[in-house]
Structure formats: structure tokens, C-alpha cells
Amino acid sequence: MQIKGIHHVSAITADAKGNYHFYTEVLGMRLVKKTVNQDDTSVYHLFYADEVGNPGTDLTFFEIPHAGSTYQGISSISGTSLRVPNDAALTYWQDRLHEYNVDHDGITKDGNRSVIHFRDPEGQRLTLVSDETNIGVKGGKPWDHSSVPMENGIIGLGPTKLTVKDPTPTITILTKLLTFKQVGSYPSSITSQEDIMVFATAEGGTGAEVHLEVRNDLQPERPGRGSVHHVAFRVDNEEELSKWKDRLQELRLPNSGLVDRFYFKSLYFREPNGILFELATDGPGFATDEDIEHLGESLALPPFFEDQRDKIEAKLKPLDTKRSH
Q1: Contact 37, 84 (CB under 8 A)
Q2: Where does the record place the VOC domain (predicted)?
């Protein structure tokens, strides 16, 4: 039983149309699936990724149209990073973010890696991270129809940052349960706060890290638009996922049991600081019900919702994601 790295990150948007524009046009990611939130089919669930939605490349959004502002704080997933091929790509991105008036901090360092911290139009906390020195989990491949040249394109998800007040229980879950090991740390950008701890699993590198920030000056986060709902970690297959479920039961950790998301199988639980973790299988993937050439162009529904299609579509605000090829 081995966690292979980050599988996907799911966040909240109040504006599916604006979200689609930003992540496809400005960031050049591919919409690989336009579907609905399986726990509330009246709202969209949008998946942005590399050319085919390889595991480890998906940044997903639930649309919650009336979501309020996020009040940032502890017990949260406080940062999502996106991998780019090298340091030269960051120079390209610095210019691009400036051109599109995206709020960003320029090229800086997290430890020995070059990064650009930036915010989307709803305040989603994002980081572009260079894979210049990466020797761990391989990235994906940018889509060749992207608005961003392939040599500079986003190749997957980088480290996920968690912010907590008391790190000990979170560290216990990461290291004693989820096969992560602490591999380093780097200074916080907040004066007087502890160094940010770096945990890695499997092959390590940018695609397999969790960064843990300790803050004693914040209240618990109040989520809204621009916040992250959960982070999912990769497991090989359903058989292994079932073993993880048994392990959680042994430890008496409340969990969802196995959930069929159709594109992958999932298992959810909260670590002791209240952050929602998901374990998700690498397959079967997003080409299960759509041709690879046309991923994300029409509303995809898992078979168990197909008989409700008319009712579901009637509740959704139209979102045109058709592309001219």
C-alpha cells in the first residue's frame, strides 16, 4: 500500500463561466470533463488538466453560485500549485500574468525551487512551480490546442499546502498512515512563523508533496469562493483502495467507504485538524465516456445519472465549452 502522489485538488467557484475562461484561456489548461457535482446535481463540476486528464494533473471546481467570500485561516488547504517544465517557463508566465492583469508576486523561491505565487479572479491561492530540478513523479503533457505554447504549458499539480495550528495530528496521519516522510523545510514568508515542513511520498518531487504550514495567529478558515474543498491522493487501483478502507476502519477513523465516481473510485476521510482528504484510483479515467478529441465539450453524466439528464440539464445555466477544431 503506497500513496503515489497528488491525484487531484477540488476547489469552489461561484462563476463557472468566468472560471472556464480563466483556466482555459489564461492558464491554458484543458477542460477534460464538464459534469455535475454527484452530491448536488444542480451545479457543475469542472475538471481542468493536461491533454487527457492524467492522474496528478486535475484541478477541479464545484460551482456554488451563491458562495460567499473565503475568510482565510487554519484547518485549510491554503495553496494549490501547478507545475511548469522549467525556470524559463516561469519567465514566460511572469509576462503572461502581467499581460492578463493577474494578481501575482513575481518569481520568488520556496526553498530551492523557483515559483510564482498568484491569485485567480476569485482569490484562489495558486502557485506556479518550476520542475527545473524535479527528479520525482513525472508530469503530464500539455494539450497541443492550448492557448499557451506547449514548451511553457502546465504539466500537472505540484505540492498542496495545508495550514494548521497544531501540526502533530496532521503529521501523524501523513507519516503513520499515508506513507509520507518529512524530506525538508523552507522559511515561511510570514515573519515570526515556523518553517514550512515538506512531506513526500513514493518517488517524491513536485507531484508527490504536501507542504505543512503552522500558523498560531489565525482563526479556522471560513470557506467560500476561492477556497479548496479537498485534496485527493493517488492509489493504484480499487483493490488497493479497499485495503485503505479496511485500514481506516481498523484505526476507527470515520470515512465514506468506497464511492464510485465513475471516472475513478474514491474514499474520503477528515484528518484530525478537519481537512478533507480523498484517496482516488488512477483509473479508469476521463476517456471512458467521451472521445479524447472532444473531452469536455458537452455535459457528461455517469451512467447512474443518465436517466435524469433532462431534469439535470434544466437546472444548469448553459455553459458553452464547444471548441472549434
Answers
A1: no
A2: 5-131, 156-282
> Considering Cα of 134, then 138, then 139, then 143, what sign does the dihedral take?
positive
Cell numbers standing for residue 12: 469552489
Residue 325: band (very low, low, confident or very high) from pLDDT cuts 50, 70, 90: low
- Which cell numbers hold the place of 171? 503529521
Count of other CB atoms within 10 angstroms of residue 274? 13
Separation between Cα atoms, residue 285 and residue 311, nearest integer Å? 26
Q: How far is CA 32 from CA 20, 91, 244, in A?
A: 11, 27, 28
264: Cβ contacts below 8 Å, ≥ 6 apart: 7, 55, 280, 281, 282, 283, 284, 285
Q: Mark 173-196 as b/e (b = at least 16 C-beta within 10 Å).
A: bbeebbbbeeeeeeeeeeeeeeeb
Which pTM does this prediction carry? 0.97
Rounded to whole angstroms, how far apart are CA atoms 140 and 164? 30
Cα distance between residue 22 and residue 59, in whole Å:
13
For the record, the C-alpha cell of 67 comes out as: 458562495
Instruction: Output the CA angle 45-49-52, nearest 5 degrees.
Output: 105
CATH of domain 6-315: 3.10.180.10
pLDDT, one tens digit per residue, over 233-246 is 999 999 999 999 99
> DSSP secondary structure string, 12-37?
EES-HHHHHIIIIIIS--EEEEEEEE
The values of phi and psi at residue 179, to 5°, are: 65, 20
**For residue 308, how many other CB atoms are within 10 A of its CB?**
12
Coarse DSSP helix, strand, coil percentages of the chain, rounded to the nearest 5 percent: 20, 35, 40
Residue of 202, 200, 160, 183 whose CA lies nearest to 58: 160
pLDDT digits 0-9 by tens, 280-310: 999 999 988 999 999 999 999 999 999 999 9
- Rounded CA gap, 46 and 229, in Å? 14
